[in-house]
Amino acid sequence: MSATGLYTTEHGEDGPRIVFCHGLFGQGRNWTQAAKALSPDHRVTLVDMPNHGRSEWTEDFSYLDMADSVAGLFSAADPVTLVGHSMGGKVAMALALRHPDLVDRLVVVDVSPVTYDAGRREFAGYIEAMKALDLASLESRADADAALRGAVPNATVRSFLLQNLRREGDQWRWQLNLALLGDELEALGGWPELDETSDVPVLWIGGANSPYVLDEYAPAMERLFSRVRRVRIKDAGHWVHSERPDVFLDVLRSFLD
Fold first, then answer.
1. DSSP 201
2. Terminal-residue alpha carbon distance, the chain
3. How many CB atoms neighbour CB 43 within 10 A?
4. Domains in the chain and their CATH numbers?
5. How many of the other CB atoms lie within 10 Å of CB of 134?
6. If we measure between CA atoms, which residue out of 27, 72, 25, 44 comes closest to residue 253?
7. Which of 208, 211, 230 is nearest to 219 (CA)?
């Protein structure tokens, strides 16, 4: 655990540093495949965001506070390539704007600096389903999967959510701060008002089937960042880096090179 209360995992010992920030309901280890692929010639840091994974919980939600917390992990003497998906992408953008000396390059994955209304009801349903799970009666993760099946019929989504279920001794607990995330869904879908702009090089990756990176959002991105390269990956939705991992890595490596 770092001094900022964030849990991190490191891969690789040499080369430029890359820091990955995951999205809502995720953990740093969601980026393990990319980290291992990049680790021969990069130092890779995977971050558990606040209220997720093994990082500390907070009393309120703020993209600016999260950005400042992640910024505490590194220094201007060793600026990083910062990669963020969804919620983590908004954190990464806010960090690059507030702490430009810390970021050498920025990769924003399937999110835009705008406020979203769509998806909030779906995410609220996931949170309520997880909160409703009777942890005291669980004997196995398979029991939890079966109990969530009615509320979360998609097996891939269930598996993703259940990665946050941790057994400690004879007890099960959620690593997610479900109460806070449930209360702050409106803020999670929002974007903070920022006056700063940046000329850091930005790779803006979107899934071709995703509604989170649209042409109409380009002006908002370009108002904040003057050097934006936008890439759309075919046959991919919001989870573009897990749906098309090889293509995602090829695009990322091209940007890094």
1. -
2. 31
3. 18
4. 8-116+193-256 (3.40.50.1820), 120-183 (no CATH)
5. 10
6. 44
7. 230
| Structure tokens that stand for 121 in this block | 């009801």
Helix (H, G, I), strand (E, B) or coil at 89: helix
pLDDT in 10s for each residue of the chain, 257 residues:
665 799 999 999 999 999 999 999 999 999 999 999 999 999 999 999 999 999 999 999 999 999 999 999 999 999 999 999 999 999 999 999 999 999 999 999 999 999 998 667 888 999 999 999 999 999 999 999 999 999 999 898 899 999 999 998 889 999 999 999 999 999 999 999 999 999 999 999 999 999 999 999 999 999 999 999 999 999 999 999 999 999 999 999 999 98
| CA 108 vs CA 3, 21, 42: distances in Å | 26, 10, 19
